[in-house]
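Wed. Picked up where I left off yesterday with ABM domain-containing protein. The coffee machine is broken again, so keeping this brief.
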Amino acid sequence: MVYLQISLKIADANRAAAAGIYQKYKEPFLSTVAGAKSKDLLVRKEDVQVLHGFDSQENADAYLQSELFTADVVAGLKPLLDAAPEVRIYEVA
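Structure written out below (tokens, as returned):
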């Protein structure tokens, strides 16, 4: 299992809108992205994280280049961000 973690700095006032984007694209992610296994929204005081589960590093990397991610998710979140997202990929040992 491979996890793609995207940490987002989003003001409290914009978090509901960001959660709406997460909900809007969760099903298309799970049903159309190669190797997609899971997608979870994690909320902390400091930030919001989206944790994506994949079957391989290659599929996680490919998602970051996909139209769903670049044209839909990123475009929707961009006006809500207070800083550039932090993207990390982890492989389960």
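Quick read: The helical segments are 15-32, 57-65, 67-77.
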